[in-house]
Amino acid sequence: MSIDNSTVKKVAKLARIEINEEEETTLITELNNILGWVDELQQVNTDSVEPMLSVFNESMQMREDQAESNFDNSQILDNSPESNAGFFVVPKVVE
Amino acid sequence: MNDFENLSISSAIEGLANKNFTSLELTEFFIKKIEKHNDLNCFITSTFDKAIEMAKISDQKIKENETRPLEGIPIGMKDLFCTNGVRTTAGSKILENFVPFYESTVSNNLWNSGAIMLGKTNMDEFAMGSANTTSFFGNVKNPLGSKVNKELVPGGSSGGSASAVSSGLCLGSTGSDTGGSIRQPASFCGLVGLKPTYGRCSRFGMIAFASSLDQAGPITKTVEDSALMLQAMVSFDKRDSTSSRQSIPDFSDYKKLSIKGKRIGIPKEYMIDGLNSDIKKIWDSGISWFKSEGAEILEISLPHTKSALPTYYIIAPAEASANLARYDGIRYGFRHNADDLNDLYEKTRGLGFGKEVKRRLMIGTYVLSAGYYDAYYLKALKVRKLISQDFEDSFKKCDLILTPTTPNVAFPIGEKQTNPIEMYLNDVLTVPASLAGLPAISVPSGFNSEKLPIGLQLIGKPFDEISVLGAGAVIEELRGF
Question: Which CATH number goes with the domain that contains B64?
Answer without folding.
Answer: 3.90.1300.10
